[in-house]
Design brief:
By secondary structure, the chain is of the alpha/beta class. The longest helix has 15 residues, at 58-72. It has ten helices and twelve strands.
Length: 292
């Protein structure tokens, strides 16, 4: 039976998809997972009623979360995905020649099971690649244990639920300091911040914490239909600066790594991805700490 699928980014805002059809629901020990089919974006899944990924537009989010940081690194070999049980981030990371190891630290095995069954386009077989290691459990526990037992990671992707969820403890300066223990000196992390219109204070708070923890923080903005808004993401590093690469250099790196199947990320439009409109800057400015 079809019904409207509605999302509430704030208490006084709503958007959604009419004629959605629920295909599956699982109440796992951690969250409510639902899989839906929609006329607009195809199949998608939600966690506790929040939109996560759809087959119709997942490439926008995953390409932006992976490629700016990965291309800024001259030769990434190891990557850590926190969350990412749908496999979309791992799929994008595998496109980079030279990647030897990807660890996906996902809390909920049911997320992996359901998305593999209902959204195979998102993972694209990434979990079957021998370079990908799936670790089920708390990402914080994995990071704590990996500090002394694993080769440092060149890339870290926060493919997590938002910071006002059970993942809140991972969006903190204390965790960033823990994370640096498993990152190589030239590593970068990427994470999503939220909508500058719906989550202004949250976005600013995340940026403040990142700038307190890392030397170089860059924001990205793009519209994601499933999230109903312009969406902000960020890269953070003590050494890598994605803004320092020209369109020509990015084109050369894409060619050298034989990456030609991207749908959204484009070196010619890269400067626009890294820019923020004046209205967004004005909204955030009231919550950002003054630059030192």
């Amino acid at each position: 039976m079809s019904a409207p699928l509605l999302f509430h980014p704030t208490a006084d805002a709503v958007y959604g998809f009419p004629n959605a059809r629920r295909l599956a629901r699982v109440d796992s020990p951690y969250q409510r997972i639902e899989v839906w089919d929609t006329p607009q974006l195809g199949r998608l899944f939600t966690l506790d009623g929040r939109p996560m990924t759809s087959t119709g537009d997942e490439f926008i989010y995953h390409e932006c979360m992976v490629h700016p940081a990965a291309l800024a690194h001259p030769s990434p070999k190891a990557a850590l995905v926190l969350g990412g049980g749908d496999g979309g981030a791992a799929r994008q990371l595998l496109k980079h020649r030279g990647i030897e190891r990807i660890v996906v630290a996902e809390l909920d095995a049911d997320v992996v099971r359901l998305t593999r069954e209902y959204l195979p386009e998102v993972h694209g077989g990434a979990f079957d690649d021998p370079r990908v290691e799936l670790v089920i459990g708390d990402a914080a526990d994995f990071v704590a244990g990996a500090a002394t037992t694993t080769t440092p990671f060149d890339l870290v992707v926060f493919d997590l639920t938002p910071p006002d969820s059970p993942a809140s403890g991972l969006y903190t300066p204390d965790f960033y300091m823990q994370l640096k223990r498993v990152m190589s000196p030239t590593a970068a992390l990427s994470l999503h911040l939220g909508s500058p219109y719906f989550h202004t204070e949250r976005v600013a708070g995340l940026l403040n914490d990142l700038r307190d923890s890392f030397a170089i923080v860059r924001t990205m903005s793009t519209f994601i239909p499933l999230y109903g808004s312009l969406w902000m993401m960020a890269t953070a590093s003590d050494t890598l600066d994605p803004a320092g690469l020209t369109a020509e250099a990015l084109t050369e790196r894409l060619a050298a790594r034989q990456i030609s199947s991207l749908k959204h990320y484009d070196p010619a439009l890269y400067a626009g991805l890294l820019s923020a409109s004046r209205s967004v800057r004005d909204k955030l400015s009231q919550f950002l700490k003054p630059s030192s």
